[in-house]
Amino acid sequence: MLIEYCAEQELKHHLAQKGVEARVELTSSSVDYLRVTKDAPLYGRAEVVRIGRRIGFIDTWCWQDSEDLPVSRGTCRLRIFES
Question: Which domain holds residue 9?
Fold first, then answer.
């Protein structure tokens, strides 16, 4: 869930910087669980890979103690609906 949320927010932020007001909707995602998590805060970071006319591709990483030791990685594809 955090992976998808980070991807949506990153795409919205990226589009807003370009002056585009749009609604985004998750079309598909792929999540790789890399290590066991513990009862501690979970952080996420997303990066725009590519934005087309209607689809955005976002990579996301989640970690707990150190960003160098991710606990999961995800790739999301989001549909862009321009207002």
Answer: 2-82
